[in-house]
Amino acid sequence: MSRVIASSSVVLAQGLERQDNNSPFFGYENLVTIGNITATTEDVDHPAINLANPSTAAYWQADSGSPAGYTYLTTIINRVDPVDYLAIAKHNFGTLGIPICVEGLSDSDGSPLDWFELTSEVIPADDSPLVFRFEAQTLYAVRLRILPNETSSSPVQVAVMYVGKLLIMPCHVYVGHTPINLGRDVEATSGFSENGNFLGRIILRESRSTSFDFQNLPPAWYRTYFDPFVVASKTMPFFFAWRPQSYPYECGFGWVTSIPKPTNQRANGMMQVAVSLKGVA
User: Which domain holds residue 142?
Assistant: First the structure.
């Protein structure tokens, strides 16, 4: 299942009382680029730079002849603004039973011993999207640590990796929401014999869909924080979760099906906006 993996030290700090660890979030900021992502091992046909492409068709893959030891996917951030998440999609860590965690480096002059864990090591239940949350902080670099694959000859793979600062909503979602992992959309064809017997059904394509309906958004907050997300969503997919602490297994990676358009909800300027999206299965 997809999952939000949160450090016990996560503290929210966008200045709104209604934000907490159950507030919905969108992970659209991505600091991973072809110029700052590296891997300690990579297949010649599936290099680490594929991780900077949001397409889930292109992926990084470890070289099958890699030496024993941890594998690291490292992105150099080197900025003052804090980051608080790393997320991945279209991986095979669950299938292979590979433990992974996120590490950070505070100083460019740091030694290999100066890397520290931002999240605890976990073995994903399956190959669904994963969001690792940690306390917002300034870091020089962030990396995904991957345990050696000693039980299978199949190399590890990841198609998408995001690192950045989450957009945390100033409100909760309580009712009327379909969790993304339960919002199954299937295109299939069915076979019947000449006398009408059912012969079988073949799935041609499968995806996920859901929507968010946000109410009473402070007008200044919307213009400062949410509108940049709307602009980015015109072309870029993103990670999201609707109630990350109570339902950590219900997050996803997807894209908007139409550009969100806000409306004034109250005389005091409070705004409302609906977000409809589709996600990878």
Answer: 30-165
